[in-house]
Amino acid sequence: MLLEIKDLTKNFGGLAAVSDFSMDVAEGEIVGLIGPNGAGKSTVFNLITGVLPATSGTIVFDGHDITKKLPDQVARLGIGRTFQLNPLFPDFTVLENVTSSFDLHPRSTLFDIFFNTGKYRRNEAFIQVKAREILELVGLLDEVDELAKNLPHGHQKMLGVARALATKPRLLLLDEPLAGMNPGEIQDSLDAIRSMRANGITVLIVEHNMQILTLCDRVVVISFGKKITEGLPEEVRANTEVISAYFGTDYVC
Amino acid sequence: MSIVGALIVILALLPLGISGTYYMHVLILAFVYVVISSSWRVVSISGQFNIAIGAFMGIGAYAAAIPNVWLGWPPWVTIPLGAVAAAILGAVLAFPFARLRTIYYAMGTLFLGYVIINLITAGGKTTGMSTGLGGVEPLFSNRAHYYYLALGLMIVSMLCLYRFEFSRIGVRMKAVSQSHEVAASVGIGERRNRILAVAFGSFFAGLMGAVYCHYQGVASPSSYGLAATLWIIMYVLVGGINSYWGPTIGVGILLVIPEFFFRDLRGDLPYVTAAILLIIAFTMPEGIVGLLKLLRARVFARRRTKEEVSVDAP
Amino acid sequence: MINVVLLGVVYILMGMGFAFILNLLGIFNLAHGAIFVSAAYGCYLLVVKLGLPGFVAFPLTVLAAAAFGVVVERFLFRPMKADFNRTIMVCIALSTILVTTFNRFLGTRALSIPPFIPGTTGLGPYKVDTDRILAFGIGVVILVAIIVFVDHSRWGARMQAVTQNSEGAALQGIRFGQIAAIACAVGFGLAAIGGVFMGSLYNLTPFIGDITLIKVLMLVILAGLGSFNGIFYVGALLGVLYGALPAVLNGAVVDALASVLVLSLLVIRPRGFFGHE
Q1: Burial status of residue B125 (CB atoms within 10 A of its CB: 0-12, 13-18, 19 or more)
Q2: Which of A17, B157, B297, C11 reaches 20 to 30 Å from C114, CA-CA?
Q3: What DSSP line would sit under A86-106, residue for residue?
Q4: Minimal Cα–Cα distance from A248 to chain B, Å?
Q5: Is A113 within the bounds of a domain?
Q6: Quick check: C260 contacting B, CB < 8 Å?
Q7: Pick from B167, B169, B187: which is nearest to A72 by CB?
Q8: What totals of helices (H) and strands (E) does chain A contain, helices first?
Q9: What is the DSSP secondary structure assignment for residue C158, as one 8-state letter?
Q10: Distance separating alpha carbons of residues C213 and B159, to the nearest angstrom
């Protein structure tokens, strides 16, 4: 098990955003976490990455207890994530956004960087090559020198994914990757996520758009902070009746 | 790059040609402030508008002056000591402010600078209180030697600052400045890097503070207060906060030119400075360098349209 | 004793004025100290050089400051589009112009605005300058008026809305221009009141503006983001600190000690004690 979440609870004052939530992700899986708006999906992500402190429960990643760790510590352990609002580095170019995200691997020390050692120069050259590879994977190679804030929305999203990939994560948390995309972009994104798994990255996706089910090995359904059901995509889709009863028909695609 | 080289050569040969200790004195002051302003600017790259920089210049000065006057330590020991002391204290004191947003960071560091000067002024006989600490041992007897020391230190410091800004370290700083959340998600810690920036900047502020203190022979608190800090900030803002050469140009315009050519206007200098600030704020917020960039872009655009027209013409 | 209270009142006035501009406009008014000092110098000019009685000079100064605030907001602050660097440049310029001009006319030696009501009054076993009682009274009235305004009036409600959520407020039709003008008018006006008090009850030098501003900055930070009420409590504390300690300790040491104390409070609680965010 790469990721084990047990009885995770998060209270905001009197409101329970997440209650006794448990789920596992095995290495190499693509798992989908679906649920209506406000169900707590993004909160779960924030709890995993340490942006929010958990009220109770445990999160274990690759044998490490990361329940109380801070975001940059979690990143260093190998969890990458994208954000729903997808903040990028707006004043960096597309290329700079990705190269700056290569801070953890390969790692140059302050000494290396400041004195421009051979190791630093090799690392930087490697980073340049890898960054372009990633950008090609997500289809942004033509826009390397464009400022991030000038990109169209769908491309900004893919840039967010590219950035997350640069940290060479073992587990990638994708927060609503398909939101705001047109059908063409959606297909590109689905293909890109499949290639990621082929590259050895485990993916946990929070998504609203049911088209994600075509991609997932397993699906976990969450509502009002609690796990409703989980299983294979076909099972969950067959449960669509139940789901639409829970969430309303506009949730079914 | 070649312009810079030429300038350095000119500056190096200057003392042989120019007579007049006043001009040399002004240039020494200018070299000192180029370094401090540039290092302030490097701190600002991490998104920190630091209003305590003058006080760290002062820490460097006093950290050099006190051991020199009371313990007899020689200047070549006290000057590095001053720089290191400023860097360490800079790092320590940066800690409580390292997560504050721009405005609150500015307010907080303004108060910090005030506290530091206060503590120095309250230091009793050791610090000489508000009159300052005199009797600091001079490094050299010849002003020209100070000139070359300042020039040399400026060149070395500017190289270090260049390295800091244009390497991965600078990338981390700019990342933290744009979005600390995104930076954290990539493993770039906000607090860690902001403190590093302040420590680095304080090192050079302290270094030049110590050097200048040995040059003047005295360390007095009024030279390191809010006024000094505001001048440094002005040099950078007028020259161009977004450019490596901005602070240098700012020092040239606000310090060297008035002192060289407009000495009689000294009383009216504040008004001129205020006017310059207003002009920059209203028309070219990126400073003089910003203006130059704009002009260069316009010239290129015009040239390009000319070429397009001539190509299309039959 | 009353000095301590008065000092607290001055700090609260200054802090309140600064907070108005900070919370409503998002602007760090570095020139606030200059307004403080200029109002004091202005009042001095009116009273000493023009011979106006205090009761005329004081309101005149305050109104002039408020009007000046509206002008500054419209022509100096607003064009800067809330860009921090540009606003700072403007504030430095404004501050320099004001302070240099007054220095030109009045020199840099210490002055004092003559009391509005000379003489002393008996207050229990103590003899207190009548002027100080008057100042205290006026200060309290003004501050109470501010509380009433902020908490209980329509304008106050609008201002609170802007503080907490400027976009939402705009959607509700609260016009930014009016709020901005009021914020600066009140801000500058309060600074002026504080300045005149400081100038008549203590010494008036060109430096008191910045020094008071720096102390007040800490007041505002400790009070907390977006808070107006917190300024009362923290201001009172600071007044006690900076007013009472000199009686016990040497002047410079007081400043140092109080400053370190304030700094420690900031370290313990960087978000301030009464803010909301």
Answers
A1: exposed
A2: C11
A3: ----TTSBHHHHHHHTTTSSS
A4: 34
A5: yes
A6: yes
A7: B187
A8: 9, 10
A9: H
A10: 38
**pTM (two decimals):** 0.83
- Interface mutation vs chain B, best among A73, A77, A85, A89, most B CBs within 10 Å: A89
A154 and A213 together in one domain:
no
Q: Are residues A96 and A122 in the same domain?
A: yes
Interchain proximity B111–C92, CB inside 8 Å? no
Q: Would you state the pLDDT for residue A140? A: 84
Give me the number of domains chain A comprises: 2
- Closest CA relative to residue B243, chosen from B34, B42, B30: B42
User: Within a domain: residue A240?
Assistant: yes
Residues A19 and A122 in one domain: no
pLDDT digits (tens, 9 = 90+) for A221-242: 888 888 888 888 888 777 765 5
How would you classify the pairing of strands A202-207 and A171-175?
Answer: parallel
Domain co-membership, A191 together with A115: no
Of B229, B270, B168, B232, whose CA–CA distance to B38 is shortest? B232
Residue C277 within a domain:
no
Whole-number CA gyration radius for chain B: 21
What domain range is C69 assigned to?
2-268
- Domain at A196, CATH number: 3.40.50.300
For chains B and C, count residue pairs whose Cβ atoms are closer than 8 Å: 111
Q: Which residues contact B154 (CB under 8 A, 6 or more apart)?
A: B31, B32, B34, B35
A83 touches chain B (CB under 8 A): yes
Tokens of A99: 């190269």
The reply to whether A106 and A160 lie within a common domain is yes
Mean of the per-residue pLDDT values of chain C = 79
Smallest CA–CA separation between B308 and chain A, in Å?
Answer: 24
Whether A105 and chain B come into contact, CB under 8 Å, resolves to no
The answer to whether C68 touches C94, Cβ cutoff 8 Å, is no
**Within-domain flag for C230:** yes
pLDDT digits (tens, 9 = 90+) for B240-262: 999 999 999 999 999 988 888 88
pLDDT computed for residue C118 by the predictor: 62
Amino acid at C200: S
* Boundaries of every domain in chain B: 21-225
Q: CA-nearest residue of chain A to B192?
A: A72
Domain range spanning residue A53? Answer: 1-78+172-253
d(CA B166, CA B170): 6
B interface test, pick of A101, A126, A174 with most B CB neighbours within 10 Å: A101
Q: Could you tell me if residue A150 is inside a domain?
A: yes
Q: Is residue C172 part of a domain?
A: yes
- Counting the structural domains of chain C, the total is 1
Q: Counting one residue from A and one from B, how many pairs have CB atoms under 8 Å apart?
A: 78
Any idea what the CATH number is for the domain that residue C259 is in?
1.10.3470
**Residue B308: what pLDDT?**
59
